[in-house]
Each structure stands twice: as C-alpha cells, then as structure tokens.
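Supplementary material to the annual report.
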Amino acid sequence: MHDLPQMNRRSFVIGTAAVGGGLALGLELPFGQARAATGRPEVNAWVVVRPDETVVIRVARSEMGQGTITGLAQLVAEELECDWSKVTVEYPTPGQNVARERVWGNMSTGGSRGIRDSQELVRKGGAAARLMLIQAAADAWNVPAVECGAVGGVITHKPSGRTTTFGKVAEAAGKLDPPKEIQLKDPKDWKVAGKPLKRLDTIDKLTGKLTYGVDVKLPGMLNAAIRDCPVFGGKVKSFDPGKVAGMPGVKKVVPVGDSAIAVVADTWWQAKTALDALPIVWEEGENAKVSSASIAEWLKAGLDAEEAFVGNQNGDAKAALADAAKKVDAVYSYPYQNHATMEPMNATALYAADKCEVWCPTQNGETALAAVIEASGLPANKCDVHKLTLGGGFGRRIFTDFLRQAVAIAKEMPGTPVKLLWSREEDMTHGRYHPVTQAKMVGGFDAGGNLTALHMRISGQSILASVFPQNLQNGRDPATFQGLNPSGVEAAIGYTVPNLLIDHSMRNPHVPPGFWRGVNINHNAIYLECFIDELAHAAGQDPVAFRRKLMAAHPKHLAVLNAAADGIGWEKPAPQGVHRGIAQMMAFGSYVAAATEISVTGGNKIKIHRIVAATDPGYAVNPAQIERQIAGSFVYGLSALFYQECTVKGGRIEQENFDTYGSMRIADMPKVEAVIMPSGGFWGGVGEPTICVAAPAVLNAFFNATGKRIRSFPLKNHNLSFA
Amino acid sequence: MADRRHVSTATRRQFLTVAGSLVGSVAVASAQTVRPAAATTAAAAIGELVGDAPVHQGKVKLEVPPLVENGNAVPLTVSVDSPMTAGDHVKSIHIFNEKNPQPNVASFYLDPRAGRAQVSTRIRLADSQKVIAIAQLSDDSFWSDSVDVVVTLAACLENPQK
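Predicted assembly:
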C-alpha cells in the first residue's frame, strides 16, 4: 500500500498541480504513470507487474475499514504466486469498469459481500495472470509452459533450472491471449490466502497518507455547505441570498432540488457561517405532525392487524397457540438509528459542458457513477468517479444523495471544482436510518413443556419499499425476514418449531430507512433470541439445552452455538456475581453465536467481563481480519444497544450530534475471544453478521443477573449504563 | 419525467393509460398499452410481434444509460431514422426486456402526424439486463437496437432469500 498512487496524498497533489486545473486530474495519474514508466506492465485487468517486481493488484470493492482490499489481494496473490511483500493495490475507476465491459465485475461493497461475491472472479484473475507470465517465460526460453512453474514471483524451467522473474516477462505476458481453462487451487493448499497477514493499509492510515473525501483539495476548488429541509419530504418556501451575499468568501447561494440550499464559498467555514446566517423559510408539510409517539402508536396497531405478509410458515401456529397448555407473549421494539460515520457525507464535483468528474468515498463506485451520469445529464463516457477511502460506511455510503447534491452545485459553477461537506448536524438529521419496528412474540407449550407453536409478528418499516420498490414481491418485502427464512444459504432460521408463523405488517413512516450495518437482522435477532430465552425460562429449562432441542435439524447453527457455549464454559458455574447469556443467528451467509459474562451493580451498572463469539463463514481468507471484524461488531452492536436512538419530533430527527447520540468507550470494551470455525463448502460474509448477536447475548445475561427483561432500546432509556 | 421538449399531442387519457403501466411517460404520438403478453421470454414476445418477418439492425437508436443507480425508474429514448411521411413512416415502437415479469414493457403507435419518430419514457428494470427496441415501419419492415443496462443494486440485500 506504500505505493498506492491514487490514495496517496503526495502523488495526488503532485498530479493535480501538474495539470494545473484541467480536467485530467490527479487521480487519473496512476494509470498514466504506470504505463509511462513501464510501457505495458498490465498482465491482465487484475495484475500489473512493474520491472522492479512491484505487483499492483486492482481491487473493485471499496475499503472502509473492513479490510476487503487486503483479503481480495490475498486471493489474487495466492493464485498469482507472487511475492506478497511486493504487493500494492489500487482501485480501477467505475468509468474504466464500464469502458472495459465490467471486467472487474460488480463494485458494490455491502451486505458483507466484498469477498464472498467476487472471490471466484479475483482468484481466476490471479491464476490467469500467472499462466500468462509463465507462458511468456516459456516462449522466451522456447520450452513448453508445462515444464515451468512460478513461486514467489520467480518462474523456473524445472528441467534446466533456468529462472526469470515476473517483472522481466510482464510486458510480453500482457500481449498474450488469456488462458481458456483455469484451475483454481483447493483452499486447503492456500499459502497466502487463509493466513492472518497484516493489512496493506495500516501504515498509510497511521501516517496520514490516505486521502479521505474530506481531504480532497483541487486547484481553484471552492467549498460548499448545505441545509436540506429538516422535515423529510418538506421543501424550501423562500430564502434570501441577499442577506449573505457580502459575507466573507461567499461566492454563490445555490438551491439544490426543491428542498435544500447550499452556500458556496472560498472555505468551508465561510460557507457554513453564511448558511447559518441565511434566512430560509421551510414548507414543512404534513410530515411535521409526525412524532416518535405517533409512529409507535401506528406500529403498535400492526401487532394485531389482520393482514400481514408471511415470511415463514409451517403447521398452524394460530390454532396450536389456541390449544396450547401454556402461552408466553412479549412485545419488543427497536428504534431508528443513524450510521453516524466518523467522516460526514461529502463529495467533490467538477462539471464542465463535456465532462463531469466526482471524487468521493462510496460503497459502490458503479452506483456513484450512475448517479453522476443522471445528475449531470452527460453521457456515461463523459463521466467518472474517483473512489476515496471511506471514513466509515456501514451502509450509508451505498446511497448517493450527497453526491447528486455535489453535482447539482457544481453544475452551477462550470469549470470550478466544488467540495460539498455536510456538517455533523446535517449528517445526523438526513440519514438513511435503521428502520423502526416492533414485534409481538407468542409461544405455546404442550402439557409436557414442549414448544409447539411460535408466532412472531413484526410491525414496521420496510427498507425495500422505500429504496427498491421494484424488488418487493407482490408488496411483500422479503428482506424483512432476514435470519428468519425457512431455508436458503443467505439467512435461514436455526430452529424447527412444529407450528410456526412469522409475518410482517408493513407500516412505512416518512423517515427514510436504509441499510444500517447488519440491516434487518439486528432487530430480528433481538426479538427472536431474547424471546427464545424467555421461552426457555418459562419452560424451566437451560437456555442452551432448550435451543439445542430445537436446532437438531440445523447443524451449522448448532455448531456455532456449541462453540460459543463451550468457549464461555456454559456447563461450569460462573464466577461469583457473574451471569451469562447466549444468542445465535445466521446472516449474510455465515453462522454466528455469542456468549457473554456480565455483572450488574446497583441494579443498573453493567460490566461486561467476557465475550466469546463463534463464526462459521465457510472459508477464512484472513483470520486476523475476521477476528477484528468480530470484535468491532461488538463495539458497533453494543454502542447501539446502550446509547443509540434517533427520535422524531415535529417530523424531524432530534439528535444532531454525539452529545445526544453516544457510543461505547474503550474502557467499556472487554476482550472478545473469537472462535473462527470455517467448515468449507460455502462462502459467508463477516463484516456484519456478528453485530446481531451482541445485544441479545448481553440482554439474556442481564436477565440472569437481575430477573428483568428489557424489551425496548437503547438501554439508556432504562437508566442502564456501563459500569 | 422524460424529455419535456418532445411532449406531444397525446391526450391526457392516453397519457395516463401508458403512465399506469410505466413509471410516468411522455410519448410523441398517441400511445396505448398492450395487454400483458402471454409470452414469458423476450424472444417469444418479439416473435408474437414480428411473426416470421426478419428484424434488421439499424435505423433505430435506443438511448438508455449503460449504468443506472436504481431500476425503479430508468429513462430511455427510442428514435428512428424516418422522414415520417405518409408513404414512409414509423407505425409503432416496441420495447422489450429479458428479465422483468412482463417482457413487452411498452408499445407506442405513431403516424405521420407525430412529426418525429421518437419516444421517451421511464421503465422499471428488476435487474441488469438487455433492453430491446423494435420499430415497425410503414412498409411493415422491422428494425431494432438493443442496450445492456446494468442496475447497480445495493448489495446489502441482494438475493435475500438465497
């Protein structure tokens, strides 16, 4: 990563200075530089080998801290047989991907899909490059390629012992036709992939070399601050640009769409100061009447509504519940939450009559490019997007609202690059929020204490109805049932209940929902796993033993549950004053479980002593990175559990900054003991699944400690905090 | 909305008819929906339209972005190289796709009074796929153009049931 030109601040600035504000700006430089230096160093789309033996691996997915560029580079390098210490990575632009007929495939980075959806493509890319390099060497030696092999970037003709290096034959290799047949290695033979290698971007991150969106500086660039109507769906009624026209640095006041106003100035602070002084009258509309209380009331009515979309059904749950010897029920709810990325939304746009370029952190370069094409009105081949490292994504940067705003502003100032940066307040109040839901859980037992029926009614917001209505199925949002599906490789339920009904009364408030790291699994796991604990308690059974009986037909779910239970020492007594909780789930193709040990003092101070978390992701490309993702999932999931709620008042979000939207501190965080147990035969994700078991594993332990069930969140609303 | 410069003489009723099946539409000529085709594939639906007649490449230009952010409303324009005279004009323009539940998305019927052989509309695309436009001329010949469109889905929830 030391040689990652388009992310490297120094080469970025040099590049932009060299072209003096023209359209061919710095981030295009790496490709030009590489070609200029070596002629034709590209072996194929994935691999560039320079004469100095540096191997540049191109990665299509976005890095946002999850480590995907390192993992994907490991997979390419594994098949390439290069020297890992010589590997650097770079992003192709989405425009290059379109121009080359999507040679790098889908650039989307979400749904814990970075590695699992592209592993085959990138491995084949690395293998093809190796075969071409070997062929080039064999051609030069005039020997059959089958007599040659490659290890560590060195090609050897086995019979004669002659050797050469990748760097020496790369140019010739790049002229060969790609091989038609490619045999990938069996993962059990991996030497680079599957190993806990260090991340490629750590040093550049620590030394400040990486360029994030907020760092972008282009020659002649102006800065913009924006304010969108605080009530979602509202509009600008009037504004008075004359009031700020003379303020320092102010260049222009620009309406953006019908709901936002931006101020463009020399510096961002000047723009923000003028925006604060700008009189804007909003037409807030009907949504201004909506509050958290009115939403909750609407959702509550859905808990018993007659009509609902069915997500999973077997037997006759309603009849079985009517006949049950014993019934248990509970109502849970889960709030709106913001992604609250450390780096607020931003994008830098340069628009001219014949070209539009955008520099931004994005989770999907292609989606960003599509948005630029549409917002600029220019043809696809006149637009491009330069991806920058993300200061947090978590699903928020799959959306392009901020990018479209930046293009709209830049269109008003042709030829001048404009950086749009949202304030923290704008970011907190114009998110794409974790959807709001409630759930009514009802379980029924027969006289023998066996669970015979379970009805889970979810009431609340659908993400797809708002974001991708074309993907609803006869009005039903299939994604609502994440982790609750009857079967499938993505997110199936781990329990077999003789009479089961899981259904959804869809109620969509005006607050825009989005994909918040983990998505629907976060609330589904709390509802299901806490209620399963309630059922175990009602039946007088141990929560692990109770689960095991229901999980006999789900061996992979059961295996991670057992691993977490064994890791925490479930069968042995806990230390004095310490209480345990457990939860399991399947999501994003992986099986996860967590067990915790906590103590509670004064009835409301929670100390988490231990967390054991088991994951079966099928294959483990970088176990060290998976371990960190698992640990990080608890930081994210427990911050949400303890602190995070976006409330609605007057149609707008009330929380504007971190004083009212907290996250856990390092002193609150216990060591996470990760059990990585890849069982092979499938590819699951790791960036998101574990988040969902964090909360129920702590909540179930809290019950064991206090006898209290918490069914609404965050915990701060119950006067509960970290000890 | 589609290109406002080409708002035509279509009546409000006709407009609403087509808009009901599409996602907002403006056509240069009188437009009407076709019944949902019984055909389940684009090839079969095209067969129902053209029968045994050959479909030529050319004359037709289908403009649709190669990359769209969201398949919910994909803008497209079909223009045909035609003088639009009584003796030589475009009779109809048909739009097909490979992966939507209904392969024949829309049909537009034109006559010389349309003036220009061009229609613009927005359609839904459930997934990345090929979109095909076929024009029938007044000599009953068929001409076609196609574009591969990538719908850049948000991957957080791709294939949720898989």
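Residues 1-38 of chain B have pLDDT under 50 and may be disordered.
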